[in-house]
Specification:
With about 60 residues, this protein is mostly helical. The chain has one domain. It is built from three helices and no strands. The longest helix is centred in the middle third of the chain and has 19 residues. The radius of gyration is 17 Å and the shape is elongated. The two termini are about 25 Å apart.
């Protein structure tokens, strides 16, 4: 699937749910910050070696 096709599918998904009203810069930045915080929490106190080990683990 091309990037353009994926973008259109995601846009259609949001339109069908009337989510576009929430996709303003402030809301998107706040959501991104929250997700980044959750990711940072995983790595916060790890050594470089421990963080590399996590990245080598298989996903769910």
């Amino acid at each position: 699937m091309a990037i353009r096709e994926l973008q259109e599918e995601l846009a259609q998904f949001a339109r069908e749910r009337d989510w576009e009203q929430f996709h303003i810069p402030k809301n998107l930045v706040m959501a991104l910050a929250g997700e980044a915080g959750e990711l940072a929490e995983i790595f916060q106190w790890l050594t470089p070696e421990q963080s590399q080990a996590i990245m080598a683990m298989p996903g769910p």
